[in-house]
Amino acid sequence: MGTVPNGSLQETESLGAVPAVPTPRHFALTVSAGARACLPHATGSGTISVFSAQAEKLHLSVSGLPHSTDFDAFIIQVPTAPFGLSWYQGDIETNSSGVGAVDFIGRFSIETFVVAPGVAPAPTPFHSPPFPDAASNPKTAPVQMYHVGVWFNSPADAGRAHCATTVTPFNGTHNAGIQVLNTATFSNANGPLRGFHP
Length: 198
Known about the structure:
It contains one helix and ten strands; from the N terminus they run E-E-E-E-E-E-E-E-E-H-E.
């Protein structure tokens, strides 16, 4: 290998360039408008980093929430209602101090999207109102999804925190409570996942 004037070794073309690893992307989660009065100290943060050549790691941490309570994390199209397309990423459970953290492995980058090339039958294991399963999907072109939201796992948990007990579909059985945190400090089209380029 050739030597450059300062004495360091210069990489030759035959070795090829080593791909750069993207810098981890940090972002804030802010308390949702509907939870601001009952959870004024709720806050959170996220970090996206490389997990492998095939996936990213999304680390979420929350605080200022009710203690020993389950919450549900979703990847969403826009951060506030009507939310757009949304998928259930997983759970966050707070400890006795109202703090929680979780790591998810998946695609959390500019490439995060959903697509439905056509309509197909869908299973319907959950029949209960007000949000029973759909029996088929709507057809849609690729829709990019760059936001994160966190919901109470149940309206009862929300009520115990003196929040509204509105029922929403944002848990595994479609009977969750209200949204408590989101990424609304970012614009609808430029959620934090968009800024990570694997």
